[in-house]
């Protein structure tokens, strides 16, 4: 389990299994992970005072806003909050680390995500 | 001098003057005639009167039978005109005139050795006959005009001139009648084509005002009464958004050019329809534009079918993307679970095996991704596939890459997906090994070699240990590579360059 002073992440993914295993993997790496199934749920958590060091969000979030729209909303509401986008779809047009928006295609190693978060 | 001596000359003169009048009157008659038969009948009467003979006939040549049919006549018993047939050979007086084109006078038929006397002439006690050709020249001759006599004096050459003049007027009437009939047939065919066309066919005057529309067109446009549109500009049938294009089409047609376009236009009853429209001029022989014709084909169903097809293709693409998305989500699950599993294992060998397994999930994912980036499911271009695969491997093997470069060269080629899957796995395996156990830059080369694709991977290390035979390695990775290369002979180490270079020949299907 992460320590009380563990860095906090907000993980947004509409697939509960993927959310579960990523949470477990990130917790093993020492992160405190809060989960959200939709972009809207993530916004509610942030408005209620959650202060993660970064948001890790899948791009496809089912109904509601997608991960890119969430990142653009956060750029207005929480400027400076790091967003890492992940996706199982082919997104060759996405480039890493412009406007604090890195991208990892699935499947990825937890270490690769950790490296991005620590960069 | 005795005035009575001039009587024959006066009589002759009177007859010639009468013949001239007869010819003049007949010419007017023939000009006014709408059909041919009255002209032929009158020609016989005039011939009979002009030559003071009871009998005259028109013999029309029958090409299929090669003889004459009596088509008009005076003086003959009932049943002759329209039925009697005479020979058209040179032994027949009429046949002689027809074949030679020269007028023929025979004043003693029964004693004339040149000809046989046709039965019909014998029946009517005909002793004399004069025949002239009707028509000829550039067109096939119509037949022969013949005057026959049993009791008058001999026909003379002066009689030929009168009869030939008569025949020439008949020939002109025949030609005019044939032209009229040809024109009527042409008009009938045009009408048939106009009405039988399944499309909407409109005829307009050169200014684009509607004159006619075919029945099918009225049906397609759901117009109940064309008279409400006759004389209106064609553009008034179209929505305002299309009228400028319509006007441009009309202008182009007036300039002698045909045009084509597709546009939307609802019917008179509001049914939405799409049309494929052509517009063109109809020109006279002198090049003057007599009218404009437009053909509009209803393509509403075709447009609908294309939209459905596009929608289906889009759905197929979305479906494929969803499939790949779910596959990659599943691979993410497996990858992460393996990683978590590794954390629970203390045995180093077991940990390494699980880490290798996790890495293979990454390489399979990289191979899968690159295969489905392209559009074709039959053949895939090698170069972009290899470039993408190595880029993904660099990301997934970041720790091992550690700043080292992976370069590649490849022949341009297209390969089926199954072959590329094996190639991708081989490259991934060899590059992973080069990164794990090698040194420096890693270079990948893929070339066509006989019936195989030759894959080589080398690094800047000192080379493989002496005695190392990759084809007989027990490691899972090299066993996979050897199996895909169809045996140990397909895998060998190249020690010639002093670097660590391994070469695999992947047989082509």
TrEMBL record, chain A:
InterPro entries: Bact_response_regulator, CheY-like_superfamily, Sig_transdc_resp-reg_receiver. It comes from the Bacteria. Keywords: Phosphoprotein. The modification 4-aspartylphosphate is found at residue 58. PROSITE patterns: RESPONSE_REGULATORY. It holds the Pfam family Response_reg. Residues 8-119 form the Response regulatory domain. SUPFAM superfamilies: CheY-like. Gene3D superfamilies: 3.40.50.2300. It comes from Teichococcus aerophilus. This is Response regulator.
């Amino acid at each position: 389990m992460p320590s009380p002073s563990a860095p906090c992440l907000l993980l947004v993914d509409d697939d509960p299994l993927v959310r579960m295993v990523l949470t477990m993997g990130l917790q093993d790496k020492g992160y405190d992970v809060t989960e959200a199934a939709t972009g809207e749920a993530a916004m509610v958590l942030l408005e209620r005072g959650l202060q993660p060091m970064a948001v890790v969000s899948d791009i496809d979030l089912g109904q509601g806003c997608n991960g890119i729209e969430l990142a653009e909303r956060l750029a207005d509401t929480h400027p400076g909050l790091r967003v890492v986008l992940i996706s199982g779809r082919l997104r060759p047009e996405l480039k890493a680390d412009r406007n604090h928006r890195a991208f990892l295609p699935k499947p990825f190693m937890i270490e690769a995500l950790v490296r991005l978060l620590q960069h | 001098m005795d005035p009575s001596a001039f009587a024959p000359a006066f009589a002759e003169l009177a007859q010639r003057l009468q013949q001239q009048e007869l010819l003049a009157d007949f010419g007017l008659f023939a000009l006014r005639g709408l059909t041919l038969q009255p002209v032929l009948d009158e020609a016989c009467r005039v011939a009979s009167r002009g030559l003071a003979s009871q009998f005259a006939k028109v013999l029309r040549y029958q090409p299929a039978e090669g003889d004459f049919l009596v088509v008009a006549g005076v003086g003959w018993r009932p049943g002759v005109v329209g039925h009697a047939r005479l020979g058209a050979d040179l032994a027949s007086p009429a046949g002689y005139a027809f074949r030679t084109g020269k007028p023929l006078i025979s004043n003693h038929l029964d004693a004339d050795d040149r000809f046989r006397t046709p039965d019909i002439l014998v029946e009517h006690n005909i002793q004399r006959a004069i025949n002239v050709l009707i028509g000829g020249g550039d067109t096939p001759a119509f037949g022969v005009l013949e005057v026959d006599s049993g009791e008058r004096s001999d026909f003379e050459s002066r009689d030929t001139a009168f009869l030939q003049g008569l025949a020439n007027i008949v020939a002109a009437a025949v030609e005019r009648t044939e032209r009229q009939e040809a024109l009527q047939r042409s008009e009938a065919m045009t009408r048939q084509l106009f009405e039988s066309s399944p499309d909407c066919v409109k005829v307009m005057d050169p200014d684009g005002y509607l004159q006619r529309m075919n029945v099918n067109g009225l049906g397609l446009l759901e117009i109940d009464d064309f008279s409400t549109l006759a004389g209106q500009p064609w553009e008034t049938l179209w929505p305002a958004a299309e009228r400028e294009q319509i006007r441009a089409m009309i202008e182009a047609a007036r300039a002698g050019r045909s045009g084509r376009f597709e546009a939307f236009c609802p019917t008179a009853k509001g049914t939405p329809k799409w049309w494929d429209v052509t517009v063109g001029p109809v020109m006279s022989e002198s090049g003057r534009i007599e009218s404009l014709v437009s053909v509009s084909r209803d393509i509403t169903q075709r447009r609908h079918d294309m939209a459905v097809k596009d929608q289906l293709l889009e759905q197929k693409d979305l479906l494929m993307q969803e499939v790949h998305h779910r596959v990659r989500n599943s691979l993410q699950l497996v990858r992460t679970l393996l990683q978590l599993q590794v954390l629970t294992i203390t045995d180093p060998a077991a940990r390494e095996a699980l880490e290798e397994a996790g890495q293979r999930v990454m390489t399979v994912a990289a191979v899968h991704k690159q295969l489905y980036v392209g559009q074709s499911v039959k053949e895939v271009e090698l170069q972009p596939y290899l470039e993408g695969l190595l880029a993904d491997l660099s990301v997934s093997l970041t720790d091992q890459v550690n700043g080292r470069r992976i370069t590649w060269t490849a022949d341009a080629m297209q390969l089926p997906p199954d072959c590329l899957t094996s190639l991708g796995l081989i490259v991934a395996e060899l590059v992973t090994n080069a990164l794990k156990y090698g040194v420096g830059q890693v270079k990948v080369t893929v070339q066509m070699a006989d019936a195989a694709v030759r894959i080589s991977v080398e690094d800047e290390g000192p080379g493989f240990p002496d005695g190392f035979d990759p084809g007989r390695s027990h490691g899972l990775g090299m066993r996979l590579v050897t199996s895909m290369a169809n045996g140990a002979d397909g895998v060998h180490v190249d020690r010639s360059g002093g670097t660590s270079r391994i070469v695999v020949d992947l047989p082509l299907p």
